[in-house]
Specification:
Elements (H helix, E strand, L loop, with lengths): L10 H32 L2 H27 L14 H29 L8 H28 L2 H29 L4 H28 L6 H12 L6 E10 L2 E10 L5 H16 L4 E10 L5
Parallel strand pairs: 2-3
Antiparallel strand pairs: 1-2
Helix pairs in contact: 1-2, 1-4, 2-3, 2-5, 2-6, 3-5, 3-6, 4-5, 5-6, 7-8
């Protein structure tokens, strides 16, 4: 009896994960240090808010290394279906670290707003934020491309966080620049907007990864795609029952397929294998269970 599912090493996928981790850690550490120094010398709370966001990025980068290491481990007796459920757990921790960064950014900005704000010289803060935004654009493009290649929701969340950082850096840029040209309160107002954006991103990320952890089903669009794919197999008359459940970041599909009741057993087995092969080729699907039934069978 086989207790552990078949496992095929995927060195190219492992390399892509490692590349994404190096890009994420190196970029976030560099930006956290750069923004922290610039915020300290300029006194900009908008820049401090953005620096707090970068520090949270460093923390989740470390968690990603640990979590994705667990995810990439092959199946064993303790986890015979593999370790993929560790990935959304990491994604959830990323969302929590984002929320903490939002809290730090928001509380500091509100405190500065109550104090009346502070005019910030535009030189160092604005240059730092423009550079940060440009670097994050590059990180977003790189991580998004890798996330699509390996179908990783954690890397997809990371790519989205990089894109969010572009917008938060631009908001902080407007605040720091506007505090000296328009009004000192522009800086803390921008910091508050940055915090709101961070909270929004954290909420969306947490909701997605909670769905993966709690066994949510596929979207209606994906369900229709699964049915159409199965019914495209020669010999399949129709799909009359479909159940999907996320096991980690990918789906387990259980479906009942109707075929001609006179189909020989050997041909029925071929149909089953073809349905499984086609469905497991879909990026969102992990494994498939197929039940063949005669078309005139009454459940």
């Amino acid at each position: 009896m086989r207790w552990v599912r078949d496992y095929k090493p995927q060195p190219s996928q492992d390399r892509l994960f490692k590349t994404a981790l190096v890009i994420t850690i190196a970029g976030n550490v560099f930006l956290a240090v750069l923004k922290g120094i610039a915020a300290y010398y300029s006194g900009s709370v908008a820049l401090f808010s953005d620096a707090a966001n970068s520090v949270s990025d460093v923390l989740y980068s470390i968690m990603m290394v640990i979590g994705l290491y667990m995810t990439l481990r092959p199946p064993d007796l303790s986890h015979p279906q593999g370790h993929s459920r560790f990935e959304p757990l990491v994604g959830l921790m990323v969302a929590f670290s984002m929320a903490y960064a939002g809290y730090e950014a928001g509380s500091t900005s509100i405190e500065r707003f109550v104090q009346g704000g502070l005019a910030v010289e535009p030189g160092l803060p604005t240059l730092t934020l423009v550079f940060s935004a440009l670097l994050k654009v590059g990180m977003f493009i790189s991580i998004r491309r890798i996330s699509r290649q390996v179908s990783s929701p954690t890397l997809r969340t990371t790519a989205q966080d990089n894109l969010n950082d572009v917008f938060t850096s631009m908001a902080a840029f407007i605040g720091a620049f506007g505090s000296s040209l328009i009004h000192p309160l522009m800086d803390p107002i921008a910091g508050i907007l940055v915090a709101v954006w961070i909270f929004r991103s954290a909420f969306n990320a947490a909701r997605e990864h909670l769905n993966f952890l709690t066994g949510a089903g596929a979207s209606e669009e994906l369900r229709l795609k699964i049915i159409q794919t199965a019914e495209s197999v020669p010999g399949v008359l129709r799909v009359h029952h479909l159940m999907t459940e996320y096991s980690g970041p990918r789906l387990v599909v259980d479906l009942h397929v109707n075929v001609n009741g006179d189909t020989p057993l050997r041909d029925s087995h071929v149909i089953t294998d073809l349905v499984m092969e086609k469905l497991e080729a879909l990026p969102d699907v992990d494994r498939v269970y197929v039940h063949l039934e005669p078309d005139d069978w009454i459940d």
